[in-house]
Structure prediction request, 99 residues.
Amino acid sequence: MHYVFKYDGSSSTIDIYANGSVVSNSDYRQRGTTGPLVFPTPTQVLIGAFPNASTGFASSATQVWQGLFNGSIDEVRVYNKALSDTDVSSLYQLEKAGR
Prediction:
């Protein structure tokens, strides 16, 4: 599976893509404004875990979605801009072709 999570600060929208196609989109207004995501304190990027103040990640969770991811994640990319639908589709096609 090829997943893309896109946050567009100019419109405060979040889009989630699976295999090059949008599967979810929503309006994300942080304090009613548009712009970059704002975190109150510096934080590390966690993929496959939910942050926990004392350990850095949750080894046990109160809700199912907060637990650790048990599997493999490959080819993680972070961009400094919101990708267009065409960009996402093109990236998926390149990955699918093994490039």
Notes: Helices lie at 85-96.
